[in-house]
Design goal:
This protein is mainly alpha-helical and 241 residues long. 60% of the residues lie in helices and 5% in strands. It is built from twelve helices and four strands; from the N terminus they run ββαααααααααββααα. The strands form two sheets. A two-stranded antiparallel ribbon has the order 1-2. The chain starts with 5 loop residues before the first strand and ends with a helix.
Length: 241
């Protein structure tokens, strides 16, 4: 890494300079962001400016703490999960439209007005298909359960999958499928809470369960796995998680 610095002409020794040291740290942190594919404070500010929303409003849309967004804009690195969710939102306005459809009843009136005003000027690039999804969220969750079971048979270091992991995998797959095909991967509402996204149907099915399959999965899970596996497009999508 190359960074600016001051040197004494006579001794050729570096002269301490707080501003240049801060600049060097910023350069190093940005290089790390680039290498890891992390969003930057500039990305956050640019998106908020584009949509016309505050830090608090963005936090409300994503189900995050306002302090979390403030810290990210101040230079903190986002978690892997939050980074993926925010990048998905920033990259495609259909994702924002989907949030409004699925979670509008949870948003404040001012946030809903901001989103609608922004999307109202982007009608030409929006349009989510009304085609019904091929599978239910629980069927896709069962695919992840069985896939995890098979992985554990070959590698004893693989842990049983948790409900939170399944939900996150579904959430990321949903976003990629929406961007790629303009279609919903499943119809169950996604609730954006402070601790992360919740797929309502999956949450109801596995209520109270943290680890889903400490041993072998049930018969229904295997039936759903085989059903989803037979659909090459969806199977390939889930494999990429």
């Amino acid at each position: 890494m190359t960074a600016p610095a001051l040197f004494d002409n006579k001794t050729n020794k570096q002269i301490p300079d707080d501003k240049l040291d801060d600049d060097a740290v910023k350069i190093a942190r940005q290089m790390y962001r680039n290498d890891m594919g992390l969003i930057s404070p500039k990305d956050l500010k640019k998106y908020r400016s584009k949509v016309g929303i505050s830090q608090r409003a963005l936090a409300e849309i994503k189900g995050l703490s306002p302090n979390t967004i403030a810290l990210y804009e101040a230079g903190e690195f986002p978690t892997i999960a939050n980074n993926r969710m925010l990048k998905s939102l920033f990259s495609n306005d259909d994702v924002l439209k989907e949030y409004l459809i699925e979670n509008g009843n949870q948003y404040s009136d001012s946030v809903k007005e901001k989103i609608k005003a922004y999307l109202g000027g982007r009608k030409a690039v929006l349009g989510i298909s009304s085609e019904q999804p091929k599978f239910k969220a629980v069927q896709l969750a069962n695919w992840f359960r069985v896939n995890n079971y098979f992985a554990r048979q070959f590698d004893y270091n693989v842990d049983p999958i948790t409900q939170m992991q399944v939900v996150k995998l579904l959430y990321f797959a949903y976003g990629r499928f929406l961007v790629k095909s303009k279609k919903r991967l499943f119809s169950s509402p996604i609730l954006h809470l402070q601790y992360g996204p919740v797929v309502e149907e999956v949450h109801q099915q596995f209520r109270g369960m943290v680890v889903l399959d400490p041993d072998k999965t049930d018969k229904q899970a295997f039936e759903d796995y085989n059903l989803v596996f037979s659909d090459a497009e969806i199977n390939d999508l889930l494999q990429k998680n």
